[in-house]
């Protein structure tokens, strides 16, 4: 049994690195069909309850927000990312760690605005829309709007106010799904936020 | 591949939404509506899921085989574990016992909050009923909780 010297990494905390999602993390992975089908049933129920698509979009965003404020804790507990220093790091963590951990996909981060406060996440495939087709009378429905709420809620809990919107959606005929995220401001006070 | 916690959070939000939307007066009738909405959601999802999971499996010899499939393969796919205990009276009633039901495990380890537990079980009851219905078995599924996170699902097969 050889003892290997562990140099320097014990006392020093690595503030910025991307944790490798190991195969043993698959004990957390489940069949995404349950999630996809449940989400579909939810959207159907919402469309039945509310007359217009705008209301449904708003409800999805609200529900996503409530999920996001809880998901961020689960995320931070299970990944070991430290505090992000700027918005670019945040974007990378969201795309490479968070999406991979929760949905098993890795969107790409592109289209940075010149000021560095806006970027796009391009999803080649969106697990939420696996068996879905939008009927003709629901043109205004943003089916995956839950994702926007989740991102918004999660980032608000780490003191970042962001605006999240869908720029392209495969359900509406575009080639890829594009989520546009814009940094609004840093939230300074740590007041507890109630659920909406 | 999605993460388990995603489904748990989504399920929590769905229950909260259905209750907020349905119950105006918070009397028994409204609560009944909310429960049946949730059960209906689960029913449709269960039907879809069982179709996907049994694409390549041969047909079941009898009801007991179908319920056993539910306890083993379906439960593993949904909750990453099997049903811990299956009891039957061989006359159409089955009791499926799960000692650590994942949707309840974050709730409590005892009798605290036990009145809230049924809300979180009814969606799964719907899934079980939907799964059985697409296997050609009509049933009524109820759930009971005595000590969390263990719960029992009771399936009563309806003979036409």
Automatic annotation (TrEMBL), chain A:
Keywords, sorted A to Z: Endoplasmic reticulum, ER-Golgi transport, Golgi apparatus, Lipoprotein, Palmitate, Transport
GO terms for cellular component: endoplasmic reticulum; Golgi apparatus; TRAPP complex
Keyword match Nucleotidyltransferase: no
A UniProt-annotated Pfam family: TRAPP
Protein's cellular compartments: Endoplasmic reticulum; Golgi apparatus, cis-Golgi network
GO BP: Golgi vesicle transport
Recorded coiled-coil stretches: none
Function: May play a role in vesicular transport from endoplasmic reticulum to Golgi.
Quaternary structure note: Homodimer.
Family per record: Belongs to the TRAPP small subunits family. BET3 subfamily.
Name by which UniProt lists this protein: Trafficking protein particle complex subunit
Gene source species: Acipenser oxyrinchus oxyrinchus
Annotated gene: TRAPPC3
UniProtKB/TrEMBL annotation, chain B:
CDD domains to which the protein is assigned, alphabetical: TRAPPC6A_Trs33 (cd14944)
GO BP term, pick one: nervous system development
Keyword Endoplasmic reticulum: yes
GO cellular component labels: cis-Golgi network; endoplasmic reticulum; trans-Golgi network; TRAPP complex
Family: Belongs to the TRAPP small subunits family. BET3 subfamily.
Protein task: Component of a transport protein particle (TRAPP) complex that may function in specific stages of inter-organelle traffic. Specifically involved in the early development of neural circuitry, likely by controlling the frequency and amplitude of intracellular calcium transients implicated in the regulation of neuron differentiation and survival.
Listed name of the protein: Trafficking protein particle complex subunit 6B
Organism expressing this protein natively: Acipenser oxyrinchus oxyrinchus
UniProt gene name: trappc6b
């Amino acid at each position: 049994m050889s003892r290997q010297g562990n140099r320097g990494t014990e006392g020093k905390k690595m503030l910025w690195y991307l944790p490798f999602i190991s195969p043993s993390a698959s004990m957390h992975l489940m069949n995404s069909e349950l999630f996809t089908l449940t989400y579909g049933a939810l959207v159907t129920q919402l469309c039945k309850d509310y007359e217009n698509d705008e209301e449904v979009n708003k409800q999805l965003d609200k529900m996503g927000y409530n999920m996001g404020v809880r998901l961020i804790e689960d995320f931070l507990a299970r990944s070991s990312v430290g505090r992000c220093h700027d918005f670019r790091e945040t974007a990378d963590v969201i795309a490479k760690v968070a999406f991979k951990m929760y949905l098993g996909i890795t969107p790409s981060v592109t289209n940075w605005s010149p000021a560095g406060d806006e970027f796009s996440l391009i999803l080649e495939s969106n697990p939420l829309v696996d068996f879905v087709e939008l009927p003709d009378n629901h043109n205004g429905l943003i089916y995956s709007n839950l994702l926007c709420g989740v991102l918004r809620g999660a980032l608000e809990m780490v003191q970042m106010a962001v605006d999240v919107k869908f720029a392209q959606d495969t359900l509406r005929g575009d080639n890829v799904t594009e989520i546009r995220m814009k940094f609004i401001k840093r939230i300074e006070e740590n007041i507890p936020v109630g659920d909406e | 591949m999605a993460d388990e916690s995603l489904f748990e959070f989504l399920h929590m939000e769905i229950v909260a939404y259905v209750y907020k939307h349905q119950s105006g007066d918070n009397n028994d009738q409204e609560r009944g509506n909310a429960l049946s909405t949730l059960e209906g959601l689960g029913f449709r999802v269960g039907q879809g899921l069982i179709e996907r999971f049994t694409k390549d499996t041969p047909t079941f010899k009898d009801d007991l085989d179908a319920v056993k499939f539910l306890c083993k393969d379906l439960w593993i796919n949904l909750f990453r574990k099997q049903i811990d205990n299956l009891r039957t009276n061989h006359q159409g009633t089955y009791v499926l016992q799960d000692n650590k039901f994942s949707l309840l495990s974050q709730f409590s380890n005892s009798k605290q909050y036990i009145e809230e537990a049924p809300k979180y079980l009814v969606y799964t009851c719907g899934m079980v009923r939907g799964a059985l219905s697409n296997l050609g078995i009509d049933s009524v599924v109820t759930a009971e909780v005595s000590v969390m996170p263990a719960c029992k699902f009771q399936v009563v097969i309806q003979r036409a």
